[in-house]
Amino acid sequence: MYPMNANTLQLALFGDVPAFEKPLHTNQPYSAAPQQFFNHVEQCFDRGWFTNDGPLVRELESRISRFLGVEHCVAVTNATLGLQLLMNALELRGEVIVPSFTFVATPHAVCNSGLHPVFCDIDPDSWNMDPGHCASLINEKTSAILSVHLFGRPCDTHRLQEIAQDHNLKLIYDAAHAFACSHTNKKIGGFGDAEVFSFHANKFFHTIEGGAITTNDGELAQRLRLDRNFGFVGIDNVESLGTNAKMSEVHAAMGLSNLDLLDDTLGRCRDVYQSYADGLRDIPGVTIRNYDAQGDSWNYQYVVAEIDEQLNGIPRDLMVDILCAENVIARRYFYPGCHRMAAYAAPRFQRCLPITEKVADRVIVLPGGAAMNAQSAREICSLIQYTVDHAAPILERVSKIDGAWRVTT
Ligand code: T4K
To answer: What per-residue confidence (pLDDT) applies to 355?
Structure first.
């Protein structure tokens, strides 16, 4: 456990040895034994087939469809391109309503599809898109709602579906974090018109880089398949303005190896999460979020803590600096909210989003996921406890200068 000495501040921020020798990253990639991956890759060499809708991509797509209980899965290069491909295939126009409290890829994909993202506030409980605020943003230019199952917590799909139907809008989901999560006893993947997963290396299930669009709409899936390959139908015939968003066979090989590991991945994520939940339970001012609810299940990958202003006077950003100095690479996902990023500073993107701003200023994502271990999670909790217990002497030795915390004595 982390040493508890009230007389000296045993923290790396003040020059002590970091608690961890190597950095503990948030959601560091977890993978099958390399041999399984190499065995799949060897098949590519045997066949001389490395991309363009190859057999490993097809096998991956059909296994994912079965696992998610959805009719079609279209594997793509990454989720950002997947979102763009989808919005293009749905022939959206004008405005798309998106949450601001998400990774920048969500609104970036909207802009890069020639559409205008209209930022929506989040619900204070779920931190997902607030359906009431979403409804208030709809006008004659709106063509779709793009909601995010943030950190794997399912959106209010029922309410969003009602709103989309009432206004004749497309409803799509950014499911980047939600592989293997369920809502109303149904796996994420089949809600709305389509859902888009990220299979980036730091996701619960990954293909190094990659993603997939899932849908029960056969015509849409067919169009997406053409569009991810430049719009080719046959050899010389190009029917749509597609792009190159194909997944390679080598990426699919990693996916097939990792699919065999899903139970193990889930168990490891749950153990790490549980260690944090036990270790943080009695620290006033720190709340660890849990997304298990009746009918819903979760992949436990993102360990999300909400830091109260009352954390014995330790501000969230100082806590992040203290942890990072100890090689605990905690992240402020998704601070400051996309609408407060330089890329979206133009007045046309600006909205009053009080819940987004409040939550973005309080969140810390701790190193979680299957590559972490429960013992390190316990030590991180002790470190947080130590920081809270020693708040007064810590605060005496630091000052906020130009927006950043600095050690001053
Ligand atoms: N929608 C949402 C809601 C998303 O969160 C994302 C992506 C997308 C859409 C778009 O998905 P993709 O187009 O990427 O498929 C990362 C990821 O790059 C990004 O995929 C992810 N969300 C986002 C939440 O996190 P960074 O820059 O914050 O983290 P990164 O890549 O630096 O990785 C975190 C740490 O993990 C690193 O500091 C070091 C460690 N690491 C990383 C890699 C890649 C390793 O130890 N080994 C590795 O191989 O963006």
So the answer is: 98
